[in-house]
Amino acid sequence: MPMSQLPATDALFSDQWLTLREPADHRARDAQLTHAVDQWLTRRAAAHPPREARSLETPRSVIDLGCGSGSNLRYLAPRLQGAQSWRLIDHDSGLLAQARLRCESLSSADGQPIHLETDQLSLTAAWEHGLEGADLVTASALFDLLTAADIEALADACQRSGCAVLFALSIDGLIRFHDAGGSALYGDDDRFMLAALQAHQHRDKGGGPAVGSEAPRRLRESFHRRGYLIREAAAPWRLGPESLPLAEALMAGWRKALHEQLPQQRDRVDQWHARRLDDLQRERATLTVGHRDLLATPTGGTPSGARA
Ligand SMILES: C[S@@+](CC[C@H](N)C(=O)[O-])C[C@H]1O[C@@H](n2cnc3c(N)ncnc32)[C@H](O)[C@@H]1O
Fold first, then answer.
1. d(CA 138, CA 168)
2. Cβ-count burial of 126 within 10 angstroms (0-12 exposed, 13-18 middle, 19+ buried)?
3. Residue nearest to atom 13 of ligand 1 (CA)
4. N or C: which end of the chain has fewer CB within 10 A?
5. Cα separation of 227 and 164, whole Å?
């Protein structure tokens, strides 16, 4: 139950779940990496002035992979300067329709309208022939479901396009309950259940074993090997009483995954689940779920690439 941590049929996600997690996602993201990508895009725009003298500026071209209902765009577009043209890619037409509806009136940090197009496409098709011309390829909460080969193919496509990448909110495997004093609650059952959850995240989703919580390391190594400059930051969810509906939904998803992973131990799973849920509901515990954000920029002097 990786990638967004709640099950649907593996790669299908409900708008309800994506909407529930959006405030925690936006709070968790690293502001410095967002600022750094904004600066990189501004330098790149300055290095590639518009061809037509009358245009003020060539829009920054951004591709959002696995965009869902548009959470990444809603976070990023108002924090980036300048005209922006976004291409939202997902295989789920219902989520793409939601994204269009909810993002059409967004503006950039300096008040310019956002140009938006949606593209119902598989991720594989997107990186096989869809990333040319992008200044930035971005994604959020996407990578744990992919295989190691997917990540290599994505990195190849990004390198060919010469774009920067900003990949937010990849799970890193850290899950901890803490008591009111901040001490970790990490007994034998927690250790056992969390190891089983990790194993579940690596299950084959159709194209080979998924990278699960190894996604941050795989992304870092793939882009580093291709000469990219890497910056990373922790972006954990910290779920207290104000985030109880999200924590409850997450725990329900974990219980389902644990039933799949440990079919002989349903009672033990249910007891652990009930105890930790009760701790959260009675405000005896909070829940931390680790993620990492990654910014990778091509090296080699002034930003350059497809638009040169
Ligand atoms: C966890 S959701 C994240 C959505 C969004 N980025 C966010 O942060 O809310 C993952 C998204 O990837 C899409 N997705 C998963 N596998 C895909 C594939 N093979 N091709 C295209 N889209 C895919 C799903 O439809 C879903 O919208």
1. 8
2. buried
3. 66
4. C
5. 12
- The confidence band for 133, taking pLDDT boundaries of 50, 70 and 90, is very high
Distance of CA 291 from the midpoint of ligand 1 (Å): 16
CA of residue 120 to ligand 1 center, whole Å: 11
Average pLDDT along the chain: 91
The pair of structure tokens assigned to 34 is 């967002």
Do the beta carbons of residue 106 and residue 78 sit within 8 Å?
Answer: yes
Compute, in angstroms, the gap from residue 194 CA to the centroid of ligand 1: 24
d(CA 147, CA 212): 9
Q: Which residue has the higher pLDDT, 285 or 6?
A: 285
CATH 3.40.50.150 correct for 15-173+208-239+291-298: yes
Q: Is 34 in the pocket of ligand 1 (CB under 6 A)?
A: no
The ranges assigned to domains in the chain are 15-173+208-239+291-298
Here the tokens at position 270 are 């249910």
